[in-house]
Design brief:
14 strands, alpha/beta
Amino acid sequence: MASSVSGTIVPRFTADTLRSAAKLSQGCHVVPVGLRRAIKKYIREKEDPHMKRKVLSLSESFHEVKEVNLLLPTSTSKELVEDPLKSMQSSKRWKIKSAYGDIGLKYRDDETIAYVASRMPAVYAACYRVLSEVKRRLPDFSPAKVLDFGAGTGSAMWALREVWPKSMEKINLIEPSQCMQRAGQRLIKDLKDLPFIQSYGSIQALTQSISKSDRQNDLVIASYVLGEIPSLKDRITVVRQLWDLTGDVLILIEPGTPEGSNIISQMRSHILWMESRKIRKLESASHKSSKSLITMKSGAFIVAPCPHDGRCPLYNTGKYCHFVQRLERTTSQRAYKRSRGKPLRGYEDEKFSYVAFRRGRRPREPWPLDGMKFDTLKEQHAKRSPEDLEIDYEDQIESEVDDDEQEQDLVSYNSDVTETDAITDDDDDDSGEEAEERGRADVGSGWGRIIYSPIRRGKRVEMDVCRAINRDGTEGSFDHVVVTQSKNPTLHHQARRSLWGDLWPF
């Protein structure tokens, strides 16, 4: 039970809206009918008897990229301070020489077909999960102009279209592989009401074709691409260029591996360091004209997943920040993925790491638990009336069934059952309005992030939470939070229903 503290702050949340605001994890995601149909049609046109072999070859290529990434330095302090623009090196894919070997993937027709069949749905699901959270955390943000770097076959663009179906007016795609570009164009051939789409082979080609005043984008996204650039300085160079093209929000997504998480951590550190250095220089300038350059867009803060802008508390702990999104496998995935002798499950879990930046300063919002008082279990029992002691067996049975459905590990899925349904592109998703009515978490520093799955032990729940330790969100820590039913039954109820990736209020 939560109530306001007399004479102090009025609470912003009830127990129900607090639980709803913190819920960001998603259940088993179903790839949209339009994308499933497009993938099936594309594969049918490119019918190949050796598809399974090509999917296996593509998987082995990804493992080679992972092995080369292991050679990169894990310590970034010296590298990040140096100006990466002095050393213009990169992988073969990005047309610049690499110091770590020429391992940039070259997506020819074989690799492209295998990618569409096996990887595109999972990449789409991860992008959709991240973009959905950005939309929910930033209700005032509706991008009209978008840049998709390393667009591939358009996984991020399909997710963007699902999350912001009406606001987008123009999308610039940067993809050096002509095979990937052609595949992406084939996949969207039957779609209606598309924004204006322009493809480029490199950042340089884009900047040369567009005037300087028209280069800023509301949203810039780079998904599953930085790991293919086998040099830390090259990645920093690319990310700096992307940040210069960002007018509001920049999103980076990588595979949820130690290597992918390390890439995200390095880019996070560099962008925050670069912007804070810029602000320090302007603030220390003796001329008033320099100080006037500090605007609302000066600086940068993390929208997600971090609740703070300080040093990552997982650094040198042996743990790495990543999340997981379950999705129902499409027909192509079930047909061409190997099962290692066991029946192939109807779902797969896509692990990913990500970071979303926004220009400006982190808003100083009240913390969600400010002004809230929680009764202990003993105090709640003392306040009960005789009617509360009556047992409603029907409600009890329904709640037990709900808990079982959440905890069971489903194996049988068929994501193509609804393909015969009359589903149109005009169907609107009201989840945003519903979330706003239920409660929405702001981007202040009062919301921690649950890393890894909570452990439920009897009447207590243990969670690993990344959180801010001060109100302005400049420092963070990685805490082990224990919630017991006896001390706080309200938060214990919320903790029992919290999942990996959800928020935790402070």
